[in-house]
Amino acid sequence: MTEFTLYTFLAASLGLIAIGIGGVILSRNLFRIVLALSIAEAGGNLLLVLIGFRHDAIAPIIEPGRALTTMVDSIPQAMVLTSIVIGAGVQALALALAIRARASYGTLDMGIMRARMEADINRVAGAESAASLHAPASSSTLLTERKA
Most buried residue, 23, 82, 99, 119, by most Cβ within 10 Å? Predict the structure, then answer.
């Protein structure tokens, strides 16, 4: 692998991580957030594999009659395999929770889901809902509402 290819893979892994983090921060849809997390995970896995790469190295397999030379570090590869398995489990759990949330609240939009959760909590607790879910109540609007 040439130096250009190594830097290309490094840029790709950092790009995948940035896209994943951006998707988590900017998305309001729960399914898209789960997908963005999996994209960031793929970038992290690629970065870990690149950490263990060495030029002119062979696979870490010792065979009889073969001279010992520089070998690729196998620890990052093992970490990536473990990360893939754990990531698949976490992704399955997150998707199951998203399906459950969709069944309970009828949407995957985080803003709508939060408003419906707060309404459910207020209904169960016997508390009054906030006057406005989009803007904070100012003192002047509270005074006019109390007088009316």
Answer: 23
